[in-house]
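Today's session is about reading a structure prediction critically. Students often jump straight to the picture, but the first step is always the sequence itself: look for stretches that repeat, for charged clusters, for runs of hydrophobic residues. Only then move on to the predicted structure, which in these notes is written as discrete structure tokens rather than atom positions. Here is the chain we will use throughout the hour.
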Amino acid sequence: MKADVTTLDAASAGTVELAEQIYGLEPRQDLLQRMVRYQLLKRMAGTHHAQDRSEVNVTGKKVYRQKGTGGARHGDKAVPQWRGGGKAFGPKPRSHAIALPKKVRALALRHALSAKAKAGEIIVLDKAQSDGKTGVLKAQLAKLDWANALIIDGAVVDAAFARAARNIPNIDVLPVQGINVYDILRRKKLVLTKAAVEALEERFNGKASGETSQ
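Below is the predicted structure for this chain, in token form.
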């Protein structure tokens, strides 16, 4: 499929061919859901911690004598029944990450790109370069109607462009190595530079299907 190439000044810069095997698939919502869940769980800190009865700092002395009180029989105050005691089955530090095969992750990325292409929300940009002025870049993006976009550049993002874009709300800039399903889906438009298009084609065609890591 062909896509028009634009510049930041909203001028035409020709066309580019987008590979059908990357941008022409019928999107599968189940794959996208699995990949987003995988990414969100993987980035959870998992540092939650509650003290159990062996960790709380309370006396170990028996509360009162075993018999003759007319109440329940209790030992020390570290048990969960008492205020200040340890929590039973409380959360402990752990990883929330789940397993997802590389083939599924690679396929999900292609389906995310295809979903954007099918919705007409993929834009090919000639070059992502700027003088580093946020106001100038903001005006250019407004002229292009890119109010909510993920911009993917080649292997290296232009430092001035990244600096100008980082203070603009709802605009994300990533190198092509950082492209991922969650960020693609959370932004309205996906802007790929010509360098990013070439890198993605090389990434998917240079390896066997499904061997691309995410």
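Discussion point for the tutorial: The two ends are 25 Å apart (CA to CA).
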